[in-house]
UniProtKB/TrEMBL annotation:
Enzyme Commission (EC) number: 2.4.-.-
Pfam families: Glyco_trans_1_4
Organism annotation: Leisingera aquaemixtae
Entry coiled-coil feature ranges: none
Matching PANTHER family: SULFOQUINOVOSYL TRANSFERASE SQD2 (PTHR45947), TEICHURONIC ACID BIOSYNTHESIS GLYCOSYLTRANSFERASE TUAC-RELATED (PTHR45947:SF15)
Annotated SUPFAM superfamilies: UDP-Glycosyltransferase/glycogen phosphorylase (SSF53756)
Transferase among keywords: yes
The name this protein goes by in its record: Glycosyltransferase
Molecular function as annotated in GO: glycosyltransferase activity
Length: 414
């Protein structure tokens, strides 16, 4: 079974879950062609991301000439080309990206379709319901193999009409949500007759990487928060909650792990509240560095306003750490209040501070028991090998039920 993964920007520091999925599928014998539109502009600190970048073909690196030549070859099948062009223009009308951008997607799709033909790809799978899913859909309409895609949220749920999410779902062999909440959202835009094609496949963790979690540390309370420094991740609320908390827990420490466009704003807020001794901004860390920070922490805090199914929560639970998180999206499918952590309303710095105080006042033995309960829960529900096996089964069914249409060979490589 040969699958093409159609991706937008890959790999990225915040998308290690895609890398784990690919590698878990390959360990189960699935042959994968990695086709990304562009490489990441961020520095790749993790050796695993660096290795993935070396294995990935980048469509836009082919250059305008190769893309136009690929598009021109598709005009030899005028009926299919006309259908694909009509669909690209339909997507453009719904979107705020404009016609030119969607004609570029069509050219990308032509090259993706031809690479799939040359490599004997039987099915395409995209991550996110954004332009990568559009390229896969257009490649299929041009005569390429069938496609599926994984929707994570929250971006897709914020703009379903601009992304033509219903169109993508209804044309796909199947569509994956990473949580039951996500599946419920997809049901809003899928045709009723396509509901059976909506599948839940969780993002997975690799249990071997968390085989021997460190015991909870002694000493002053330490927290970790992991994520891009963007508005939806809610770090600003957490910094303001910290300003309240240090009045009662002066030696409280928070490691903010990540980076992004909001860094300067966070630094200014930390300075405004004189929290420089209580909060450390670590920047992006490789996976080993993230695990080391979790080992030093008593708990993970996730103050997000919007999420899909947060990998950072899974990893903290696998590391036997209690979690303080916001009651949003798929997070309640992970965190069980009073058993594995605390859930609070998003955007409520008072409630967040109170939950951290509850954590601080919880006896050490009880914190450890909550961490172990979370570990057992996530290892049972989110083992990457098990989730990859589910996805592979969906691929096999899609291939056997709808074999790819024949298409012309193309140049051997991008």
């Amino acid at each position: 079974m040969k699958i093409a993964y159609v991706l937008n920007t890959y790999p990225q520091p915040s998308h290690s879950f895609i890398r784990r999925e690919l590698q878990a599928l390959e360990r189960q014998g699935v042959d994968i062609l990695r086709l990304a539109m562009r490489p990441s502009g961020a520095a790749l600190a993790d050796p695993g991301d660096q290795a993935e970048a070396a294995r990935t073909e980048y469509v836009l690196k082919a250059g305008a000439g190769r893309l136009l030549a690929a598009l021109a070859r598709e005009t030899a099948a005028p009926a299919r080309f006309g259908q694909a062009l009509k669909l690209a223009l339909k997507l453009a009308r719904a979107s705020d990206k404009g016609v030119l951008r969607h004609l570029v997607y069509l050219a990308e799709a032509a090259l993706v379709k031809q690479r799939c033909a040359a490599e004997g790809v039987q099915h395409m799978h995209a991550h996110f319901g954004t332009n990568s899913a559009a390229v896969a859909m257009l490649a299929h309409v041009l005569g390429g193999p069938g496609y599926s895609f994984t929707v994570h949220g929250p971006e897709e749920f914020d703009a379903p009409h601009a992304l033509s999410l219903g169109e993508k779902i209804n044309r796909a062999r199947f569509t994956v949500a990473v949580s039951s909440f996500g599946k419920s959202q997809l049901s809003r835009w899928a045709a009723f007759g396509k509901w059976d094609s909506l599948k839940v496949v969780h993002c997975g963790i690799e249990p071997d990487r968390f085989a021997d979690p460190a015991p909870l540390p002694q000493g002053p309370l330490r927290l970790a928060a992991i994520g891009r420094f963007v508005e939806q991740k809610g770090q600003m609320v957490l910094v303001r909650a910290m300003a309240r908390l240090v009045q009662e827990i002066p030696d409280l420490h928070l490691a903010l792990i990540g980076d992004g466009g909001m860094r300067a704003d966070l630094e200014a807020e930390i300075a405004r509240h004189s929290l420089g001794g209580n909060i450390t901004l670590t920047g992006w860390l490789a996976e080993d560095g993230v695990r080391a920070e979790l080992a030093r922490a008593h708990a993970l805090v996730m103050p997000s306003f919007a999420e899909g199914l947060p990998m950072v929560v899974m990893e903290a639970m696998a590391a036997a750490r209690p979690v303080v998180a916001t009651y949003i999206a798929g997070t309640p499918e992970l965190v069980v209040p009073e058993q594995t952590g605390w859930l609070v309303p998003a955007g409520d710095e008072t409630a967040l501070a109170e939950a951290v105080l509850a954590l601080a006042h919880t006896p050490a033995a009880r914190r450890a028991a909550m961490g172990q309960a979370g570990r057992a829960r996530v290892l049972e529900r989110h083992d990457s090998a098990g989730e990859a096996a589910k996805l592979a089964a969906h691929f096999r069914k899609a291939i056997s039920g709808s074999p790819p249409e024949p298409s012309r060979p193309s140049p051997p490589h991008l």
